[in-house]
């Protein structure tokens, strides 16, 4: 047990360091969007719409940054917990833990790639960030339903499917 606690302390400190480095590597968003030069009176409405659109883009970028931090923290802490569980347990883990680990790995890989391609490929990076949130939500449902009896597992996965359908319908129409 002493080796497991030593391993846990090491991984937690490395995880905290990685989170700090990850969060500080992002440049802070500008406080206010840059103001375009004064337009002629005929295009004043277009200019106001552009400023509003720029404000929305900056707010969206800040919201995505928050999601990135949340998903990254979830992935790293879950990976540490699964690693500790496998060290402490001498027998083979159930297959559901393998699926959980795979979903967490996909979420982390999506965020990792999106982070480093966003400057050149912003649209694929945004899609990868959405995929990371999807994989993190899937991992959450897998993790939560592990101790449940079969009836509650079915209810939980029905909630998951209804949530996915609601997201698809709201984004489609």
Automatic annotation (TrEMBL):
Position of the signal peptide: 1-25
Bias (Pro residues): 26-42
Residue ranges crossing the lipid bilayer per the database entry: 96-119, 131-149, 155-171
Coiled-coil segments on the chain, per record: none
Keywords, comma-separated and alphabetical: Membrane, Signal, Transmembrane, Transmembrane helix
Disordered, as annotated region: 26-45
Superkingdom field: Eukaryota
Protein name: Uncharacterized protein
Organism: Liquidambar formosana
